[in-house]
Amino acid sequence: MGIKQITKKLSVVSVLAMASVGCDSGFDASRTVKQSPLNQASLGLAVQVDSRQEIDQLMLSEPNAKVRTINANHGLYEIYNVPKSVVEKYLGESEISENQLVEPLQPLSQPDVSQLAMLNSDQNGNQFQPCRPSRQKPSAKISQLSPSSTSPIVELGTDISLSSAGSANHRSVAGDLKVGWIIETPKGSNITQTQSFGKDLVLTPDSIGLYQVLLLVQDDNDSCHVTAKHYVVTANEPLKSGVTPLAAADVSEADLYHIEQVSAPLAWNQSQGEGVVIAIIDSGVNYNHPALHQNIAINEGEIPNNGLDDDHNGYVDDVVGYDFNNSDSYPFDDNGHGTHVAGLAASPVLGIAPKAKILPIKVLNALGGDQASLAGAIYYAVDRKVDVINLSLGNYGQPHSFVMRAIRYAQSSGVTVVAAAGNGHPYTGQSINTDQMPNYPSALPYDNIIAVAASSKTKFITSYSNYGKVSVDISAPGGDEDNPLVSAAMANPQGLLLEAMSGTSMASPVVAGAVALVKSARPDLSPSQIKSLLMKTGDTQTQLQDLTVSGKELNVQRALSELADQRQNIL
Ligand SMILES: [Ca+2]
Ligand SMILES: [Ca+2]
Q1: Fold topology of 113-234
Q2: At the N or C end, where does the chain have fewer CB atoms within 10 A?
Q3: Any catalytic annotation for residue 546?
Q4: What's phi and psi for 76, nearest 5 deg?
Q5: Would you identify the CATH topology of the domain 259-570?
Q6: Is the pLDDT of residue 18 over 70?
Q7: Which of 505, 508, 520, 550 does the annotation list as catalytic?
Q8: Catalytic site residue 505?
Q9: Is the dihedral of CA 205, 206, 212, 216 positive or negative?
Q10: Is 50 among the catalytic positions?
């Protein structure tokens, strides 16, 4: 850790000073950034400093600088509007690194003129025609009339008012443009009108999640153009009290085949994960879900809603967890991914570790997230004393130095990190050998990381799953098209409680749940001992021999009986 390990004393002083001026940074709100970057243009410089004073000095001397506080206890900030050379002047020895994006969990659909075929007729009842290729294309332009913020993150119930008025014919073409809108809504939405033909469009989201609005225009020569805007509708839901737990009878056993496949029920007489906390660093968690609510890890040191950081960890009112995407204490899920993942790991009725606790931490929304927030989230989880961190996320390319350092901090604190190996090529879906094209963080060579491939119901590796004789440790059920994994659904107006998904993102929390069972039975085991145990006791799969380090699929029962045998031998 070296110089990056900042002293607790300093951070407590700065936190108290912040609280006394009623602002989390000491600077005017216009100079503090609350939302993490969502595109290349909004990225800043990630910095990790020994003391807050270095940031204060920079902010005072550079009037255009803006700052996002990511993890004050670990000196982690993002600085905007200042060139790197200038930041280096103030922060000297401290580490500075360009922040990078983390890709969205599901690739966004690309707007395409073929979608015109979905539209009937335009605002005047004129039929759209098949698009004709032309060099004199019209331009489709969406102007946002309200809300005034340019952020794609909006609150539930906001009227999003859009206009096509800026769209135009190519200058050499005359006539009226035909205009049509297509609205793609999240699964939980009750909006049934998915087409609109006026010049303007008002969309009032009724469900949290991702909305895509397409504007298609066609000119008198049948030449077309399409453009899109994305919105992520989010909500800051308080933690409810007295949620009635989901009854086991409400879930079909056949839907939970993955629990049987890893022989978890046979291990439950030895361990159910009591006393263990699993951090779900993901798109947030629907912590009011009846299958998750009772397993949410509450921060006992924090008094809710008093506007104070009672436990001095740098986060005000972080009772449930933290949202690093929006800098608030409501890590509620607006994508569905994190809720599903949490259920697979530690739901009383859906999970591998029915009595482990879940710490929800949000670093992603449907449009993605950033590496500096991921690093900040890992530090946060470790400081909240979790035993296991699940990372059903990743990127190809270079690992971010701040994320690497944060995972080493987890390692030095005895925290196991379970990471998804990745679902193949982002566009083709073709599985990838991550020994050759590493996926990070799963492919980092640390002995506290367990990299997980996805197997199908037949125990074969799935067609989409990444693999690697060196970089992928073990496989676990992740589901496929025929047999996806069933787990908890995000909040939606229909009140749907369960949802099916497939991916290495699903296989990873199955292993995280297994780690929790082992850790609960044997709290003294180190991450590398737990990793070795799971890799040794899995079911040997010949077809996996060259695809993962262990060549095995997770077997929870055998891992737990191995521990029981060890105990026997000691006696
Ligand atoms: Ca706090
Ligand atoms: Ca508080």
Answers
A1: Immunoglobulin-like (2.60.40)
A2: C
A3: no
A4: -100, 120
A5: Rossmann fold (3.40.50)
A6: no
A7: 505
A8: yes
A9: negative
A10: no
